[in-house]
Amino acid sequence: MTNLTIDRLTLKLPGLSQQEGQHLARLITTRLASIEMTSGSIRDAPSLQINIQSQPNTNMDWLANQIVSEILRQLTQTLA
User: For a tag on the chain, would you pick the N or C end, based on fewer CB atoms within 10 A?
Assistant: First the structure.
């Protein structure tokens, strides 16, 4: 199992309140913490940029899942 440390997670969330943004960040970090990744070697991934298009009143669970899926997709490429 690979240990992964995220030093900083920055979210730019136009249209969301601070409370909604904090809730989304908690959903994302909880999902990331529950995932087990395996890899033979770790490469430095200093920065990932995720762009997810959402509509007004987007479900926070859906948005968190989209963000986590994209993070994992990019990490899988980095750790391969």
Answer: N
- C-beta of residue 64 within 8 angstroms of C-beta of residue 27: yes
Nearby residues of 72 by Cβ (< 8 Å), 6 or more positions away: 35, 37
Could you report the per-residue pLDDT of 10-24, keeping only the tens digit for each? 888 888 889 999 999
Mean pLDDT of all residues in 20-47: 79
Residue 66 has pLDDT above 80, yes or no: yes
pTM higher than the cut 0.90: no
Q: How many CA atoms lie within 13 A of 62 on its CB side?
A: 8
